[in-house]
Write a structure and sequence with these properties.
14 strands, single chain, 6-stranded mixed β-sheet, alpha/beta, 6-stranded parallel β-sheet, 18 helices
Length: 493
């Protein structure tokens, strides 16, 4: 059903206010500016929208010319998930690396510096950090995005990250409530299910979210996961028991509740984005994230009209929509009041990402001098959250330190013999990502090390497999600075 709503209608403005849509291109399209003028209070940015810091600053300034308190959101976790540096790789290690160092002061400073860079570009809401406890090492979508498998480690670093980010005047959005760590399914593709009891949830999944709330997180993002112990029928994003009963009432959270992307198949494939959005707001969500895949005006109008129709038909209480819109506007007002604290001094600010990446390395074996090696990157299919447009590995960084280094990328099915033939007499540097989850990758490594015992192995995912090779380096993430830190060890720099 389509409802033609007047642009000055309060109900329509509230429906627009709760949307966080995306768009195509590196400049704000006319339709987006028009909708911001009509009440749209938030915009989501993705890698496709960003070419440079200067371009991004101009884009956000144009949005604020229409509305000075507009929320400009981004999915900038640092590490593997970067939008700000989508084409070159992040200047910051991700959560697992920070958890491996386990220095909350460092985590706070990294988050503050990342927040400062976002704020300089006009971004004031970050869909981060991930507070998920990565208790399932086979998790296909969280992994290095988590601070780790230890609940209390995850909790203290989540709190530190929230504090650091918000000290820069950028609102944190802690995700994915009530915890996406114990899943073996990616919610971009299907609906994950967590079959644990309430005691386990309380003792494991919820602890980092409690820490984030205590640290003052301005937003919490819901997960598209089914948790039967909390709600046997609806995923968390659509569950009144989880969003209102647990998050609001039991945990006492008063900030903004944002949904994960509504076009993800866990929701869109079962409920559709219009019905899903209505159910999410009714359940207690305040903002609808959409735009990773659906990034056009038609999507905004479909969701706006679905919310308006639901209120007029009596399936969504008008006061619930008004309350959601008020929370969005309250956060928008906070961003105008927020003033960043002093940035870290000099080189600590500019180089803190590389400093953290170096500290996160776990090195097994003794480095030895190398001439120009051959870097073989075994490349799994990237999950949607990470994307395949962001480069990773050590080849480029190693080539800058050891001129003459050569490299090749090898997908599933490529035999180790191909790598050995390409390497010739050069030392092989085998770069992997989550070798424990990919049997083909483990087999290739085994063959390489058997044929060439001097092989160097760099694990840039979750380091669960036993170290192998003459030198094994676990980076705890695949960001650019993680690759640089590993390259320095290999090159003896």
């Amino acid at each position: 059903m389509t409802v033609l709503a007047h642009q000055t209608d309060t109900l329509t403005r509230d429906a627009l206010a709760v949307l966080q849509p995306g768009f195509e291109g590196t400049t704000a399209p006319a339709w987006l500016l028009r909708r911001v003028g009509e009440g749209l209070t938030a915009v989501g940015l993705f890698g496709r929208n960003i070419a440079s810091p200067e371009q991004l600053a101009a884009l956000t300034a144009r949005l604020r010319a229409e509305r000075d308190d507009v929320l400009v959101a981004i999915d900038e976790e640092g590490g593997d998930v970067t939008r700000l540096e989508v084409r070159g790789g992040s200047s910051f290690p991700g959560n697992l690396a920070l958890g491996a160092v386990d220095d909350t002061g460092l985590t706070r400073d990294v988050a503050r510096e990342l927040g400062r860079r976002l704020a300089e570009c006009g971004v004031n809401l970050n869909w981060a950090p991930s507070a998920d406890v990565n208790s399932n090492p086979d998790n296909p979508v969280i992994g290095v995005r988590s601070f780790g498998a230890d609940t209390h480690l995850a909790a203290r670093h989540t709190a530190a990250y929230v504090e650091g980010l918000q000290a820069s005047g950028v609102a944190a959005c802690t995700k994915h409530f009530p915890g996406h760590g114990d899943t073996s399914v990616d919610s971009h593709h299907a609906l994950p299910r967590i079959d644990v009891d309430l005691d386990t949830l309380q003792a494991r999944e919820l602890i980092p979210f409690k820490a984030a709330i205590e640290a003052g997180t301005k937003a919490v993002m819901s997960a598209h996961i089914l948790v039967p112990a909390l709600d046997p029928t609806r995923p968390a994003t659509l569950s009144p028991q989880i969003l209102t009963g647990l998050l609001r009432k039991e945990l006492g959270y008063e900030g903004l509740i944002v949904t994960d992307g509504m076009e993800m198949n866990a929701i869109a494939g079962t409920y559709g984005i219009e019905r899903g959005s209505v159910l999410a707001i009714a359940a207690g969500a305040d903002a609808i994230c959409v735009g990773g895949g659906l990034a056009d005006e038609a999507t905004v109008l479909r969701l706006r009209d679905a919310l308006v129709a639901a209120v007029r038909e009596g399936t969504l209480p008008e006061e619930r929509l008004a309350d959601a819109a008020a929370r969005v506007r309250e956060l928008a007002a906070w961003t105008l009041r927020a003033r960043p604290d002093a940035r870290p001094e000099g080189s600590r600010a500019s180089g803190i990402g590389l400093t953290a990446a170096r500290r996160a390395l776990a090195v097994t074996g003794a480095p030895r001098p190398l001439s120009a090696p051959y870097v073989a990157t075994l490349t799994p299919v990237a999950n949607i959250a990470v994307g395949d447009e962001t480069p990773w590995g050590v080849a480029a960084e190693l080539a800058s330190l050891l001129p003459g280094t050569e490299a090749g990328a090898y997908p599933e099915g490529a035999p180790a013999a191909d790598i050995l033939a390409a390497a010739g007499d050069r030392t092989v540097v085998a770069v992997v990502r989550d070798a424990h989850r990919h049997a083909w990758m483990a087999q290739a490594l085994e063959a390489l090390v058997a044929a060439r015992p001097d092989t160097v192995v760099v694990e840039m995912g979750l380091p669960r497999a036993e170290p192998r090779g003459a030198l094994h380096i676990a980076t705890h993430g695949a960001s650019r600075v993680c690759g640089r830190a590993a390259a320095e060890v290999i090159a003896g720099a």
